């Protein structure tokens, strides 16, 4: 018996041979004692395998199992794209919680500082003087909590005073 | 606790703090009542206009404690008005002098001073309660004019002025 005969014998046992080939192998088993012994051994082996082979069942359906693998592959493919983001974006993402906390705290401190006048009023002061002929300066007294903006008018005593700085004049007050 | 949970909680806290701060700010900025006065500063014992009241009380004390050279301050006009952050409130202080005041939020105000219809000065500054903004200038005969501006409590209807003995009027000539 050669190797081909052995393979044919196994194919016959598995029911893979049809027609003439099957008849030839059946005749060989009947006529040859060595072939018959091998066939019997193969039959026993097949029965043992069928009876003792552990059957593994997946906890989920076949489609779901493969879709999980597909999703995992897609996820792993997207990871290099994320790591390609600029470093400052990664830093921002990593420290988002701390940054938002600090921002909120800073906003509250500024708000409270403005409401409770911790910030000196002069810090945010702006004075605009559109007239060329008069000068302006400001003075603040902390003790009196008063800011004085002085509009100096060198022509105050002159007749044209009201033209240089058109403000209340003595005649108007009287 | 996972970082994403911390981030979510921080953002939620930040949002709540922002809403709180905005609501508080809006409540604070809702009502801004102001008082403006036109004051005449002089070293004379009497005002050029006998109808003017001698300035007394807290404001007079503040002006006297400032490094100013005038001994007496007479109140020409007093106005109590409300300002808002939408438009300028125009206050006529005298025939030739007026101011425009606008609430800039978080205790800030913008004051535009007009003389004879011309803008003379503009001041942007914080003006919280207790603070007084005084704009002043030279007038004829070594006198001075002042416009004082200060916030009032929302329930205040008019300004306090401590009663002082009336200025003695000269006896009519017989």
As a whole number of angstroms, the C-alpha radius of gyration of chain B is 22 Å
Parts with pLDDT < 50 across at least 5 consecutive residues of chain B:
157-174
Strand content of chain B: 35-45%
Order of helices and strands of chain A: HHHHHHEEEHH
How much helix, percentage-wise, in residues of chain B? 10-25%
Query: What integer is the average pLDDT of chain A?
Result: 79
State the order of secondary-structure elements of chain B, H for helix, E for strand: HEEHEEEEEEE
β-strand amount of chain A: 5-15%
Shape annotation of chain A: rod-shaped
Explained architecture:
The complex is a heterodimer of chains A (174) and B (174). In chain A, 59% of the residues lie in helices and 10% in strands. By secondary structure, chain A is mainly alpha-helical. Chain A has a two-stranded antiparallel ribbon. In chain A, strand 2 (135-141) and strand 3 (146-152) form a beta hairpin. The longest helix of chain A has 22 residues, at 62-83. Chain B is built from two helices and nine strands, in the order H-E-E-H-E-E-E-E-E-E-E. Chain B has 174 residues and is α+β, with helices and mostly antiparallel strands. Classes of the chains: A mainly alpha (174), B alpha+beta (174). Chains A and B meet through helix 6, strand 1, strand 2, strand 3 and helix 8 of A and helix 1, helix 2, strand 6, strand 7 and strand 8 of B.
């Amino acid at each position: 018996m050669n190797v081909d005969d052995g393979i044919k014998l196994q194919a016959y046992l598995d029911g893979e041979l049809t027609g003439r080939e099957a008849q030839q192998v059946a005749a060989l088993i009947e006529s040859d004692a060595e072939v018959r012994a091998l066939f019997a051994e193969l039959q026993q082996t097949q029965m043992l395998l069928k009876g003792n082979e552990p059957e593994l069942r997946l906890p989920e359906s076949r489609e779901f199992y493969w879709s999980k693998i597909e999703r995992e592959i897609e996820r792993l493919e997207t990871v290099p794209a994320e790591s390609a983001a600029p470093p400052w974006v990664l830093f921002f993402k990593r420290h988002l919680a701390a940054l938002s906390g600090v921002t909120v705290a800073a906003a509250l401190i500024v708000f409270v500082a403005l409401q409770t006048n911790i910030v000196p009023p002069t810090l945010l002061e702006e004075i605009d003087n559109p007239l060329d002929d008069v000068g302006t300066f400001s003075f603040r007294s902390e003790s009196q909590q008063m800011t004085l903006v002085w509009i100096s008018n060198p022509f105050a005593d002159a007749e044209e005073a009201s033209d240089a700085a058109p403000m209340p004049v003595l005649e108007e007050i009287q | 606790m996972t970082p994403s949970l911390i981030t979510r909680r921080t953002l939620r806290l930040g949002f709540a703090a922002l809403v709180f701060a905005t609501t508080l700010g809006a409540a604070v900025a809702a009502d801004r009542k102001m008082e403006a006065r036109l004051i005449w500063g002089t070293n004379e014992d009497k005002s050029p206009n006998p109808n003017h009241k001698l300035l007394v009380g807290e404001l007079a004390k503040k002006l006297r404690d400032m490094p100013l050279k005038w001994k007496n301050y007479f109140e020409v006009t007093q106005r109590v008005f409300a300002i808002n952050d939408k438009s300028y409130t125009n206050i006529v202080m005298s025939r030739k002098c007026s101011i425009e005041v606008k609430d800039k939020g978080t205790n800030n105000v913008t004051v535009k001073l007009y003389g004879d219809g011309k803008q003379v000065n503009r001041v942007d500054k914080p003006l919280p309660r207790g603070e007084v903004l005084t704009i002043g200038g030279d007038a004829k005969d070594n006198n001075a004019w002042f416009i004082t501006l200060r916030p009032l409590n929302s329930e205040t209807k008019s300004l306090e002025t401590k009663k002082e003995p009336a200025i003695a009027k000269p006896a009519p000539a017989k």
